[in-house]
Amino acid sequence: MKAVLVTGATTPVGERLVRSLIADTRVKHVLAVGIEPREQAAPLPFGNRLTYVQVDLTRTRKVRELLFGPARDLGVEVVVHLSQHRDPNDKGRRVHRVNVEALRSILDLAHRHPTIRRVVVRSFAVVYRVGMELPVFVTEDHPLNLAPRAPQYVRDRVEADLTACARMGLSNAEIVVLRCAEALAPGTGSQLYDFLDAPVALRPMGFDPMLNVATIADMVCAIEAATHGSGEGVFNIPGYDTLPLSEACRKWGVPSVGVPGPLVKRLYGLRRRVVGSQFSYGLNRRRLHFGLVLDGTRAREVLGYAPCHPVDWPIGAPAPTSLPSAK
Amino acid sequence: MPVHPTIARAFARAVGGSKVRERAERLAFADAGHGYDAFGLHPDFVAIGDAIASPLHRRYFRAKSYGAENIPATGPAILAANHSGTLPMDGAMLWIDVLHQTSPPRAARPVADYFVATLPIVSTLFARCGVVGGSRGNARALLEAGELLMIFPEGVPGIGKPFSERYRLQNWTKGHCELAIRHGAPVVPIGIVGAEEQMPQVARIPAPKGSPLPYIPIPATLVPLPVRYHIHYGEPIPLHEEFRPEQADDPAIVRDAAARVKASVQALLDRGLELREGVFR
């Protein structure tokens, strides 16, 4: 029986994880942390085994008060860090503090914390570099996107990922980094969801890359496996569905139109300014040209995680016969 | 090029007939869900490639194959062949020959130069038929999944070799031997006779700056000549049995292994040239 602290508990993934942990008999208590006041965290299943605290993780003092206050008192052994700024169009120091500095504080404090034994960090497939010279089927040693001109959304995620990786083996707490496939769900900051949610999906003409998409349910399964597992390391967390972009559009029921590259960038720029869409073509340009599918072999072998929740496509999907992690 | 597989299937049936359909249905491939493998291969698009390339293979180039029993029926293997002909028709003919000569049919995975992935439409169509970019990660994943990798160790210099250099192997890269040793795959040497005369190249123009193409070839003919293809499969070289995986890091072992493969391919070419009765026969 262990107590688990979950940051970003009011996000769609966090909320689902908290529910799942409360239903788990191996978990004695969940300390849910969010930026919202308790009244706005209403969807959480409040009860005897859940404590919700409102904390601004960008303030180091608040993080210390959290970890050496309620977390220590509850005997928290595992910290699951899900908190990330989700709008890719927002920039600046505050966004960086949310994305990177909050994690740095948690890792610093976990090193000397009396009860925390394990920190699970959710990272993203977006940290991987995509290009013509790179593999489509990527393992954990795939090059990261360290391009200085990459958007802050990507740079922050890479920095957070590397910040966690750099502590592995040096901290008293075990550190696990889960590089998750994009969850095709609203409110998760999914660029693909926003891409597909448009009346018409504009694709670079002549390209149809392979994608791997996950569901919140699979992501929660992977985080739970990492929460209860032992050892540390980096793991790719693929989703159940591997398919080309055009097929994803078709199953989503959105017409897709091939448009010459320079034009598609302008059209998406215009769309963002007019209707305030979160989809950024600059962020996804390479992903709309070259495929990227996560190899989940390591997660399957070490964590025992295998994706088993397909996306609920609006237009029926055939049952996949094997999984990307089986390669 | 978002052609739905249903349309691809109908096209392949209309053009290729029952044999093409049957081959597509029996094709061995690792479905990653939704009918595609993780690299984008789809049996219905393989059928399209089969329907389009089969008439070229059977009627235009009148390809003959020798020693096809040397292609492993299952498990990983690397097919290493000479490369030539200005246009990669040799790759297409070898791909279709392997598809026809194996039972159940195996779609070889041609390893293409990086620039192919940047070509609109072509990149997608090739990926649906099994072509992959030439990165180590792709090769590793495919060999571990037990696929047939089709590699042209001469690379782009091979396809662009001048007519005077025909049937003389160019700089022979070594990566295929390293992959074979590391991932436990035999190497099948292949000599393709005929392709080197199909489209003599008289000059080449440097590609414009920013173009993904390595150069622009100037061939003597507008279309490939109807030369006869003779595809000679040599006995598999069991590098994976002779060396341990960790020996793939030894440059001397890899260099010697690549030299052996090159010599085997050259021997197949020499024998093929002796056996054939003429360029078009």
Could you describe the 3D structure shown?
The complex is a heterodimer of chains A (327) and B (281). By secondary structure, chain A is α/β, with parallel strands linked by helices. Chain A has a domain at 2-183 and 213-239 and 295-309: 3-Layer(aba) Sandwich (Rossmann fold). Chain A has ten helices and 14 strands. Chain A has helices at residues 12-22, 60-74, 93-111, 152-167, 191-196, 216-228, 245-252, 261-275, 281-284, 297-303, and strands at residues 2-7, 27-34, 50-54, 76-81, 118-124, 137-138, 174-180, 182-183, 201-204, 210-214, 233-237, 241-244, 256-259, 293-294. In chain A, the strands form four sheets. In chain A, strands 3-2-1-4-5-7-11 form a seven-stranded parallel β-sheet, with helices on both faces. Chain A has a three-stranded mixed β-sheet with strand order 8-10-12. Chain A has a two-stranded parallel ribbon with strand order 6-14. In chain A, helix 1 (12-22) packs across helix 6. Chain A is globular. Chain B is an alpha/beta fold and 281 residues long. Chain B has one domain (61-275): Glycerol-3-phosphate (1)-acyltransferase. Chain B is built from nine helices and nine strands. Chain B has helices at residues 5-26, 43-60, 89-101, 122-129, 136-144, 155-159, 175-183, 239-242, 251-275, and strands at 64-66, 77-81, 109-112, 132-133, 148-151, 187-193, 201-206, 215-219, 230-233. A seven-stranded mixed β-sheet of chain B has the order 1-9-6-2-5-3-4, with helices on both faces. Chain B has a two-stranded antiparallel sheet with strand order 7-8. In chain B, helix 2 crosses helix 3 (89-101). Chain B starts with a helix and ends in a 6-residue tail after the last helix. The mean pLDDT of chain B is 92. Classes of the chains: A alpha/beta (327), B alpha/beta (281). Chains A and B meet through strand 6, strand 12 and helix 7 of A and helix 4, strand 4 and helix 5 of B.
